[in-house]
């Protein structure tokens, strides 16, 4: 394709788009997300956790898989979809990426699992909406499935944390009791 100025325009390959989306996803996690060390902090280690809580190493592996599969979904979708549909789909993808990243800041930095649960439910809804938007485009919607499944488990773990640790939710002056 040639631009009005005579320059040759290239369309990024799906592989290039994938690397751009994964870089964007990592940057969103870094900027919006809090410290991932929350699971090593005393207030979390001493809490009563769901029996479904996986070993700590699973979280890093799961998020690596989720970043990769959701980034691949976005690259497939953006490669096979034209504007303005592409912009709407990628906006949904960016919103769910931001919301899943903000959860860490709310749960870990603010130590507010009650607010974090609301954040997760919104992230899950955005993930489902993104998958539905992407679904009309071959396999892109299915590549969102691992993220949606992981967020379903995360909602259970977060909700169970709230149920099993009511003593930690008594607020004093708006601050959680464990701060």
Structure description:
This protein has helices at 14-32, 42-45, 56-80, 85-109, 113-135, 145-164. The chain is mainly α and 179 residues long. The protein has a single domain (14-167), classed as Ferritin. Helix 3 packs antiparallel against helix 4 (85-109), helix 3 (56-80) packs antiparallel against helix 6 (145-164) and helix 5 (113-135) packs antiparallel against helix 6. The radius of gyration is 19 Å and the shape is elongated. The termini are far apart. The mean pLDDT is 81.
Question: What is the H/E order?
Answer: HHHHHH
How many strands appear in the DSSP assignment?
0
Q: What average pLDDT do the residues reach?
A: 81
User: For the record, what is the CATH homologous superfamily label?
Assistant: TspO/MBR protein
Shape: elongated
- Please give the count of helices: 6
Q: Roughly how many Å is the radius of gyration?
A: 19 Å
Instruction: State the oligomer.
Output: single chain
Main β sheet profile: none
Structural class: mainly alpha
Estimate the helix proportion, in percent.
Answer: 55-70%
Strand content bin: under 5%
Work out the count of structural domains.
1
Reported CATH architecture:
Up-down Bundle
């Amino acid at each position: 394709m040639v631009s009005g100025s005579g320059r040759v325009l290239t369309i990024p390959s799906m592989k290039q788009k994938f690397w751009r989306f994964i870089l964007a996803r990592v940057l969103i996690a870094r900027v919006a997300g809090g410290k991932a060390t929350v699971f090593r902090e005393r207030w979390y280690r001493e809490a009563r956790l769901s029996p479904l809580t996986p070993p700590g190493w699973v979280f890093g592996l799961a998020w690596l898989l989720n970043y990769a599969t959701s980034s691949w979904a976005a690259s497939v979708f953006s490669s096979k979809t034209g504007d303005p549909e592409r912009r709407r789909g990628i906006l949904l993808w960016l919103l769910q990426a931001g919301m899943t990243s903000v959860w860490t800041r709310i749960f870990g930095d603010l130590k507010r699992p009650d607010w974090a649960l609301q954040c997760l439910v919104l992230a899950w809804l955005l993930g489902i909406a993104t998958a539905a938007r992407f679904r009309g485009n071959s396999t892109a919607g299915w590549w969102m499935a691992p993220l949606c499944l992981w967020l379903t488990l995360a909602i259970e773990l977060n909700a169970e944390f709230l149920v099993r640790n009511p003593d930690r939710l008594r607020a004093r002056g708006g601050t959680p009791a464990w701060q």
